[in-house]
Amino acid sequence: MIQNACHIIGKQLLFLKDKQNWKHLNPDSKFLVNRLKRGEEAAYEMLFKEYYQMLTVFANRYIQDLETSKELVQDLFVSLYEKRNSLEINSSLKSYLFRSVHNRCINMINAKKIRDKYAEYVNANMNLSENSLEEEVYLSEMQQAIYTAISELPPKCRKIFKMNRFEGLSNNDIAEQLSLSKRTVETQISKALKILRVKLEPYIAISN
Amino acid sequence: MKKKTISVELITKHMLGATDNKEKEMIDKIINDDDKSRKEFEAYLDVWEKSADVSDFDKIDADKDWKKVRSRLKGSKRLQRIPLRTYLIRVAAILILALGLAYFFTLIINKSDKVSDEYFEITSLNNTRNIELPDGSAIILNSNSKIIRNDNFGISNRDIILQGEAFFEVSRNESLPFKVYTSNSTIEVLGTSFNVKSETDEVVVGVITGKVAFYQSENIDNRVELMSKTTGVYNTTEMKFQQRNNLEPDLRTWQTGEFHFEKVPIIEASESIARHFKIQLLIDPKVSNTITLNTDISAESVQKTIEEFNLTSAEIRLNFIDNKLILERL
Q1: Is residue B125 in some structural domain?
Q2: Where would you tag: which of A8, A69, A178, B323 has the fewest CB atoms within 10 A of its CB?
């Protein structure tokens, strides 16, 4: 799946052209970094709101506990603020954030001395090379785009679609809970799929 | 013969496991016969699977959690470790100051007939206010701000205490420096024009003409000298100064209703606009920051601002969609 995602990295710009889905803060802006260094709260807020969900889900791939992952990312932002005077960002701010989260995950896993196969696996395989970090960042951005697209569905359609995809409810269950006909549920899910199919075009993996 | 294509409704039924045997056969047949239909089918399948993968996003509330982080950022300032000795010295200093003030006030009360230092307070409410001072200097006070001076102003001192934001046009008097006291810092000038914005965390001084000395009130050596068209920022908690070689484009927006851009790179200009209106900015990575803005633009409303902004260059465009500003390359 990651390979597919990378395969279409070139199409990302097309996605950025699509205003509906466009959710992108220029994280490499020197101005933004300077504002962070100055300790401007608004800059931290902007950065947090842009990346928090993505980074948390990214952390959760290692941590496997959503609440702990949230705290880990929150800690990172607090520490970013505390260390703002000595902040050295050589790569992009985005890579910096993902790499920091990654390092914190590894530290946490090691600190807890989880002596199971998972910890061993993480230690053996999770030394991220620049390439695979790029893949991870891409995957996270793709997921954020998908989530945003779902959030932007019409309300009724979104509710039904989420009940099925997020909560795993069957069309029967949804029809019952919302006192709708099964046919209506199916129509709404179709509608959602049609919209998402168009919006997520650049991210869709199709074999030849 | 017309080839059968696959409908989204049928695909949906398939995903939901609601197809009957006849429909299943039909799907199999269509995707085996028609390559285009197969690709369409796979695309929908991909969307279907990927959308289940993002369910965790729904459990992460960035707005709510930002509040937690924000309170910790604020807390971290207070948590700066102060050595006990310094702390005790501070406590002692405050006590001495308090006693000193008490003594001073008893003097004033006892000898009130002899005291000529009468203090004037001028407050602006919801509007800006123009103030002329006895020495010929002028102040424009932003809304919800306050200045205090005494009746010896222009005779034995030119001291102003400022709360909030004001623009100063100071007439030159080399023998009597003009001083603005605000949030632990002092701005001292002979004759110039500058803007002072004093907030809890910081004091921002933008110098329009002339030269300004900006220092910590209790430590005159902790200072910066600001030349025209530069900005000084004093962080009141860290007691540190920073200098910037430009003026914020919205420095005087509160007076003029306009952004003032002087050779500002397009990204920084957009960032100023976004910050001024407190909205998020999204930037197309293809936007080249070599384009600069060299004009005044209305700050009346977001719409008006972007309308004028978009007239400045044919290469870029600023859009306002979903309460976000979007800077894109055309």
Answers
A1: yes
A2: B323
| Residue B64 CB neighbour total at 10 angstroms | 8
Helix B35-53 × helix A130-151 angle, to 10°: 90
Across the strands, what pairs with B292? B265
- Single-letter residue type at B188: E
- Window 205-264 of B: residues touching A by CB (8 A cutoff) are 233, 235, 242
Phi then psi dihedrals of residue B271, to 5 deg: -65, -35
pLDDT tens for each residue of B143-160 = 888 888 887 888 888 988
Interchain contact, B69 vs A186, CB within 8 Å: no
Among B48, B51, B76, the residue with its CB nearest the CB of A81 is B76
pLDDT band of residue A117 (cuts 50, 70, 90) is low
For residue B316, what are the domain limits? 253-329
- What is the radius of gyration, based on Cα positions, of chain B? 31
Chain centroid to CA B113: 47
Model confidence pLDDT, tens digit, residues B247-282: 888 888 888 888 999 888 888 899 889 988 988 888
Residues whose CB falls within 8 Å of the CB of residue A156, separated by 6 or more in sequence, listed in order: A188
Residue-level pLDDT at B202: 87
Identify the residue among B14, B41, B47 best suited for mutation to test binding to A, counting A beta carbons within 10 A and taking the highest: B47
At B5 the pLDDT is 76
B201 and B284 share one domain: no
Residues in chain B: 330
Q: Taking CB atoms and an 8 Å limit, are A81 and B43 in contact across chains? A: no
Is there a contact between A19 and B321 if contact means CB atoms under 8 Å apart?
yes
Average pLDDT score over chain B:
83
User: Could you give all domains of chain A from N- to C-terminal order, each with its CATH number?
Assistant: 2-152 (1.10.1740.10), 153-208 (1.10.10.10)
